Amino acid sequence: MKVKVPAGLKASGAALWRSVVEDFDLSEHERAQLLQAARLTDTLDQLQAVLTTEGPTVPDPATGASKPSPVLVELRQQRITLARLLGALRVPDADDRRPQRRTGARGVYQ
Questions:
Q1: With 0-12 CB in 10 A as exposed, 13-18 as middle and 19+ as buried, what is 34?
Q2: In contact, 48 and 78? CB cutoff 8 Å
Q3: I need a surface site. Which of 18, 35, 42, 96 has the fewest CB within 10 A?
Q4: Residue 98: DSSP 8-state
Q5: Low-confidence ranges of the chain (pLDDT < 70)
Q6: Residues 21, 39: Cα–Cα separation, whole Å
Q7: Contact status, residue 65 vs residue 59, Cβ threshold 8 Å
Q8: Residue 95 has what pLDDT?
């Protein structure tokens, strides 16, 4: 079944969306998570473009010394968020088609 890519997604977000929905049947809440992950993927591309242009450091106004760019810090935080969203979807990669097990602090749920 061909699923329409949500409006507003750019190339990377649309590619992520297609790669998941073409292979997996998602529930409504999983589609919502995937949409957020796809949007975040596009945001990561934008942040990376800014970082590539401006560089990883900026001068500290107080001391003049170099400090990490706020864009670099935000990029790192958004990558962590994307990893969590994708992990919450529990979509196996192409090499591992075994269903993923839900685990808790004390082991596998019964």
A1: buried
A2: no
A3: 96
A4: S
A5: 1-2, 93-110
A6: 15
A7: yes
A8: 64
58 DSSP assignment: E
Residue 85 identity (one-letter amino acid)? L
What is the dihedral sign for C-alpha 40, 45, 49, 52? positive
Query: Across the strands, what pairs with 107?
Result: 104
Angle subtended by helix axes 11-21 and 28-54, to nearest 10: 150
Please state whether the predicted TM-score (pTM) of the whole model is above 0.85.
Answer: no
- Phi–psi pair at 23, nearest 5 degrees: -105, -20
Q: How far apart are CA 108 and CA 102, in angstroms?
A: 6
CA distance 104 to 101: 10
Closest CA to 43 of 21, 85, 74: 74
Count of CB atoms within 10 A of residue 43's CB? 18
